[in-house]
Design goal:
- By secondary structure, the protein is an alpha/beta fold.
- The chain is about 30% helix and about 25% strand.
- It has 2 domains: about 1-125 and about 295-330, Medium-chain alcohol dehydrogenases, catalytic domain (Quinone Oxidoreductase, Chain A, domain 1); about 145-275, Rossmann fold (3-Layer(aba) Sandwich).
């Protein structure tokens, strides 16, 4: 099979790799959609080899005896791996498995087929396209987990900082829940896309965002802030813009040190703060149902599609920033 491999900075090749084999508890999936996430940084910097990508939807092509799937079933392959036996894995929060990823298991979804444990495959409902189902990974899944933990409802005002693909997905998640949404972003393309998705206002980080948000909410602040950029300045904005007894979810991987003042930032305003990486597997059905009920909205998240052979152009598109979610179609 063909696999995308980064061989030097801004250089990618398709290389041959052995086909995966189904074993007890593991199935082989022919990849139809592999959404791109942060792999463009590996392409840009010339690192990563051929273990790239962590999102996929496809069709089961090989199973082992006892599998709960049959050849021809369409599935979402959840990102990464877990041991499958610890309390976190058994409870659905496998993404926090302390055992991590088995080093002997090859990873990567930017290839023609993958193999995955059956318990990390989610059946795609009839009538839901592979492209829309693929958004149940990082595009919508990352913020969906944060919304679930924060118990966000349609009465909430939500601030979203950072409008990459994950942040744009957070806008869509908030709109699907009926929330009032404000956001922060520098990229004009993504600002416009967020407004088309239903954001009420998109501020620039150069603005006094905390003052603007409080002005827009009658001096109170937002109920929830979903921080998707990982930038220390945006993290401070999220902490400052939520109301007293509000909630801040850190979703974007951080790159820098964010000062945290326990009393003025946490104790006095009574904030709830947590980190969120993915969502509990038990909620997968609810997310897929939410996607199915809003096809027009989720379609807007997908802005570009490329074949595997043209993945270099896809990564250049991401580096340029004029995109929402970019899909690879092996």
């Amino acid at each position: 099979m063909l696999v995308a491999a980064v061989t030097a900075p801004s250089t990618v090749e398709l290389v041959e790799s052995p086909d995966p084999v189904a074993t007890p508890g593991w199935s082989v999936v022919d990849v139809s959609v592999a959404p791109l996430c942060t792999e463009f940084t590996s392409y840009r910097d010339g690192v990563g080899g051929d273990a790239l990508g962590h999102e996929a939807v496809g069709t089961v092509s090989e199973t082992a005896p006892g599998s709960r799937f049959a050849v021809g079933d369409r599935v979402v392959a959840m990102p990464l791996l877990g041991c499958g036996s610890c309390a976190l894995c058994r409870g659905g929060d496998y993404i926090h498995c302390p055992a991590g990823i088995p080093s002997e298991e090859p990873l990567g979804t930017l290839r023609e087929r993958i193999r995955k444990p059956d318990w990390l495959l989610i059946a795609v409902p009839d009538g839901l396209s592979d492209e829309h189902a693929s958004l149940a990974c990082c595009a919508l899944g990352a913020s969906f987990g944060a919304f679930e933990r924060a118990r966000v409802s349609g009465t909430d005002v939500v601030l979203i900082t950072g409008l990459g693909a994950v942040g744009l997905g957070a806008v869509a998640n908030a709109v699907m829940r009926g929330c009032r949404v404000v956001a922060v972003e520098t990229n004009p393309y993504r600002k416009d896309l967020a407004l088309r998705l239903g954001a009420e206002e998109v501020y620039s980080p150069d603005d006094d965002v905390v003052a603007a948000v409080r002005d827009a909410t009658g001096g109170i602040g937002t109920d929830v802030a979903i921080e998707c950029s990982g930038a220390p300045g945006a993290q401070r904005t999220a902490l400052g813009a939520v109301r007293r007894l509000g909630t801040v979810a850190f979703v974007g991987n951080s790159y820098g040190d964010t000062p945290l003042r326990v009393s003025p930032d946490l104790i006095f305003p009574g904030l709830t703060i947590f980190g969120s990486w993915h969502y509990n597997l038990r909620a997968a059905g609810r997310l897929l149902d939410q996607i199915a009920r809003h096809p027009g909205l989720v379609s807007q998240l997908i802005t570009h599609r490329y074949p595997l052979a043209d993945i270099g152009s896809a990564w250049q598109q991401q580096i340029g920033g004029h995109c929402g979610k970019v899909l690879i179609r092996p």
